[in-house]
Amino acid sequence: MKRLQQLFFVTAVSAAFAPSVCLGFGDEGHQIVGDIAYYELTTRTRAAVLGILQNDDDPKYRRLYGATVWADDIKDKDHPQHNEFRWARRLHYVNLPEDRHNYVESEDCKTKYDCPDDLPCPHLECVVAAIEFYVDVLKNDHSSSEQKLIALKFIVHFVGDIHQPLHAGLRSDTGGGSIEVRFFNTDTNLHSVWDSGLIRREIKSEGWNYQDGWKKLSDELRGTITDEQRALWKSELDPREWAKESAILAQSVAYANPTEHRRLRDNDLLRTQYYDKSLPVVEECLKRGGVRLGALLNSIFDVE
Fold it and tell me: For residue 285, how far is the Cα from the chain centroid?
């Protein structure tokens, strides 16, 4: 892996979109965000977070990195909680028009009418509003232990989602989901490339096993976070700004065809040049999402 070239590109991207840049992911990406976040937690926050997660019936979700994948797992029809949480599917993203990057709640987040009475459910239907809502649930002393468990599992997932640029992609193509491409030798769509294709290819290129490759990548990325980066990323904990960052990267990087200097379209081939351009962005935003998730949790659980 060409680390010097990657670091140079990340630096260039960061400068171009200062003060903030950045990236839902597949299981690997979400676990990396959760793993990085875990090491950002104060002792007090770590105890509070793990205390809430221990109430989960499934041991898989009792660790922070494991809890990050719950909100995607429940989309599976075979998951025992699938029907109970079908209303949450539209909370993972916010799609924006092509002519702006900033999030406008009245235009970008629809009113939600199918909220159940017995579960914590935001009445606005997008990832920005969902994060804001579930932070309030965790801060509310009157929230039940079950409500706090649900809120925590949604937050640790949605912070990863909002740092993936195509979760703030264009409304016209459902965040790249309707753009069919060929990523090396795989027929897929653009959204899936950014959710999992780029990360899984990196893990494979390093020769790591599928089962623990995400952890090795997480450890490597965590070791490259500087004090300056950490301070900068922690200074912006507004999910509205996170959505703006991702929208900028969606339009400037994710949708761009680097070989023909135009917008990506159906049947484009995404190979080495696209991968080399996009991978450093994914890596930086996994780190950014992890640091910010940790800081957000600290702001909830470690306050006087």
Answer: 8
Topology classification of domain 3-301: P1 Nuclease (1.10.575)
Q: Where are the beta strands (DSSP E) in the chain?
A: 110-111, 124-125, 180-183, 186-189, 256-257, 262-263, 268-270
- Please give the Cα distance from 138 to 123 (Å, whole number): 17
- pLDDT band at residue 151, thresholds of 50, 70 and 90? very high
* Structure tokens, 276: 């080399």
201-210 long-range Cβ contacts below 8 angstroms, 24+ apart: 201/275, 202/1, 202/279, 202/282, 202/283, 203/28, 205/1, 206/1
Q: How do residues 253-304 score in pLDDT, each as one tens digit?
A: 999 998 888 999 999 999 999 999 999 999 999 999 999 999 999 999 998 7
Distance CA 145, CA 53 (A): 10
